[in-house]
Amino acid sequence: MSKPLLAENQASWYAVYTKPRWEKKVAELMLKRGIEHYCPLNRVVRQWSDRKKVVMEPLFSSYVFVRVAEDRKWQVKEVDGVLNYVYWLGKPAAIPNEEIELIKRFMNEHENVQVRANKIKLNDKVRIIAGPLMNTEAQVIAFKGNQVEVEIPSLSLTLTATVKASALEIL
Q1: d(Cα 63, Cα 82) in Å, to the nearest integer?
Q2: Are 28 and 90 in contact (CB under 8 A)?
Q3: Count of alpha carbons within 13 Å of 84, Cβ hemisphere only?
Q4: What DSSP line would sit under the chain, residue for residue?
Q5: Pairing of strands 63-68, 94-95
Q6: What are the chain's domains?
Q7: 100-106, long-range: CB < 8 A, 24+ apart
Q8: Each residue of 50-89: pLDDT tens digit?
Q9: pTM across the whole model
Q10: From the centroid of its chain, how far is CA 67?
Q11: Between the CA of residue 36 and those of 39, 60, 99, 162, what are the distances in Å?
Q12: pLDDT, tens only, 87-107
């Protein structure tokens, strides 16, 4: 029996945490269950003392992307090796289809790709992307745990606000 069109249209991409080094196993188990998924694999050349070998390693350690409708989210958590969804603001974080497509295109074009987290540093110019100060540009002046103190120049005055690092993007 085919899926209703409405459920297909409501499917969104999410990231799930996997057990360490289970990314490929989880992807295989999802394939067997008919769950749409994407585990970006990175083509890496490994050097041994006697030879070189190209190996396929997961690009994101302990993550696999899944595309499911709201009413099927629970099925993903039943897959052996899946620990949980990646949450943002108390609910599974939906990932725009365009971002998944961008990763796919990038991985098709390049090999030996490396992933680095954006690190916010002292004096960086940033844009606040969440909360009441959303879309405000500021400068990082201090760190307090996962909070960042930013300076917001306005009306020839300096306003200082403490914002979660996750609510900032580097300009």
Answers
A1: 9
A2: no
A3: 7
A4: -PPPHHHHHT-EEEEEEESTT-HHHHHHHHHHHT-EEE--EEEEEEE-SS-EEEEEEESSTTEEEEEE-GGGHHHHHTSTTEEEEPEETTEEPEE-HHHHHHHHHHHHH-SS---------TT-EEEE-SSTTTT-EEEEEEEETTEEEEEEEETTEEEEEEEEGGGEEE-
A5: unpaired
A6: 5-109 (3.30.70.940), 125-170 (2.30.30)
A7: 100/13, 100/38, 100/65, 100/67, 103/38, 103/40, 103/59, 104/38, 104/40
A8: 999 888 999 999 999 999 998 999 999 999 999 999 987 7
A9: 0.66
A10: 14
A11: 10, 17, 16, 40
A12: 877 889 899 999 999 899 989
Residues present in the chain in total: 171
